[in-house]
Specification:
The complex is a heterodimer of chains A (235) and B (190).
Chain A lengths: L2 H10 L4 H14 L8 H17 L9 H11 L4 H10 L8 H4 L6 H29 L7 H4 L1 H19 L4 H27 L5 H28 L4
Helix pairs in contact in A: 2-3, 7-9, 7-11, 9-10, 10-11
Chain B lengths: L2 H12 L6 H20 L2 H18 L9 H20 L3 H6 L12 H19 L3 H12 L4 H8 L3 H21 L4 H5 L1
Helix pairs in contact in B: 2-3, 2-4, 2-7, 3-4, 4-8, 7-9, 8-9
Classes of the chains: A mainly alpha (235), B mainly alpha (190).
């Protein structure tokens, strides 16, 4: 029993910790202990009340109760709102805990989810970069490597989603492929950051370089670690 | 009922076979009715609450997690229905007990014994209804329904120590009420 619990009972009654543990243990079916002493009489009274409740005959449900319930069940019509809320509140088959995925084994579905989420992120990033560079009018004057950043992000997104979907098969081959994909992604993020930073002519290149390194490296390490933990299920 | 059967039945119900729900109703209407009766002390209320509990369980069946035990889940649903009812009506024990006891499956053979047993049951029910709802729940689940402390904690959402504490407090309160009423010590000690 917790200390807080014992303090609560102290507020109710002068029973001490040890005595309380004993009484509850005894009520839990262990019977009075030989050294119960002064607690014996108290225990007998409480046990007597508990026994009266246990031996109390069980009331029978009225006849026709089952049929009444089933009539209501048959007549029940779910509102569209209820159907939607039920669908949203339906328990997930897989839980997603990114921090837990770094420490303990994860399923193929969970691993797949992380790859697809990275893919979704890069798809959004690609679109933003594409629109952003266009608005800046930078696409005409930007050096080659920076100009290709939106397309690189979109290709990365496609690859990540493809790997994620393949991982749903939850097999060793899919896992091996995902590992290669994650390593390529990590290496490419690093190189991309370096290449972009070489093109200092454009102000956005510093931003691109930072973005690539700051997002790519932790994400790459996270995916690799997740794949390692996913692989533990085949170990 | 076996766990695997429950899973299969729930699967059928979720698949659209509403009639399959009747199996669960038949299996558990007794315990749910008894729980509702002990909590309210009224047969008509227990009848309504049992119907409401099963209907709520049917509506929420999609949220039932595969592999979970159905019975504690149903108890949790029922307790929520009963708590809402008690909150709404703020039932007075004296009024509730007047609504009478349902027929009990009493193996008693002697008429005098049966009368004593009924009187004892009536008194106990009266004491029970004078307890705060959370404590009443713990006592009903423990001694009338025979649930373990672990199951009580799971059904009520309490910690294990808290469930034990409520049971202990409930018994102490009933003991105090019995003493106030001059209920003979021998009756509890025998």
């Amino acid at each position: 029993m917790t200390k807080r619990g014992v303090e609560r009972i102290r507020g109710l009654d002068p029973v001490k910790d040890r005595e309380l543990e004993k009484i509850i243990g005894e009520l839990d079916g262990k019977g009075p202990s030989p050294e119960a002493g002064e607690l014996d009489s108290r225990w007998k009274e409480l046990d007597g009340i508990a026994r009266m409740m246990r031996e109390e005959p069980a009331p029978e449900p009225p006849t026709g109760l089952g049929e009444s319930i089933m009539s209501r069940v048959r007549a029940h019509r779910s509102s569209p709102w209820k159907v939607i809320s039920e669908a949203l509140l339906k328990p997930r088959e897989v839980s997603f805990h990114p921090l837990k995925a770094l420490r303990s084994p994860v399923s193929g579905k969970e691993c797949s989810f992380y790859f697809i989420m990275v893919g979704v992120f890069y798809a959004i990033l690609g679109v933003i970069l594409m629109v952003g560079l266009h608005r800046l009018g930078a696409s005409l004057v930007t050096p080659g490597w920076v100009r290709w950043q939106p397309q690189i992000a979109l290709v990365t997104a496609g690859c990540m989603v493809a790997i994620g979907l393949y991982l749903l098969k939850d097999g060793k081959v899919a896992l091996r492929m995902a590992r290669v994909g994650a390593l390529v992604y990590l290496g490419f993020s690093l190189l991309n950051g370096i290449f972009v930073s070489l093109e200092w002519a454009l102000p956005v290149s510093a931003f691109m370089s930072l973005l690539s390194a700051l997002i790519g490296l932790p994400t790459g390490f996270f995916l690799i670690r997740t794949i390692q933990n996913c692989g533990k299920q085949y170990a | 009922m076996k766990q695997i059967d429950e899973g299969e039945i729930i699967g059928r119900v979720l698949g659209g076979d509403r009639e399959a729900f009747a199996v669960l109703v038949d299996a558990y209407k007794g315990p749910v009715f008894r729980l509702a009766f002990r909590m309210t002390g009224s047969t008509p209320d227990a009848d309504d609450l049992t119907q409401e509990s099963f209907l709520r369980a049917f509506q929420s069946l999609g949220r039932f997690r595969a592999g979970e035990r159905f019975f504690p889940w149903l108890y949790t649903v029922s307790l929520n229905v009963i708590r809402n009812h008690l909150r709404k009506v703020n039932a007075l024990p004296e009024v509730a007990t007047e609504k009478g006891m349902p027929d009990a499956t009493d193996p008693c053979c002697d008429a005098a014994d049966a009368a004593i047993s009924r009187e004892l049951g009536r008194r106990l029910q009266g004491y029970l209804l004078r307890l705060p709802v959370p404590i009443r729940e713990a006592l009903v689940l423990r001694f009338y329904e025979g649930l373990s402390f672990d199951d009580i904690a799971s059904v009520t959402g309490d910690k294990l120590s808290s469930a034990k504490m409520k049971v202990y407090r409930g018994l102490e309160k009933i003991r105090a009420m019995m003493k106030e009423d001059g209920f003979a010590d021998d009756e509890t000690r025998s």
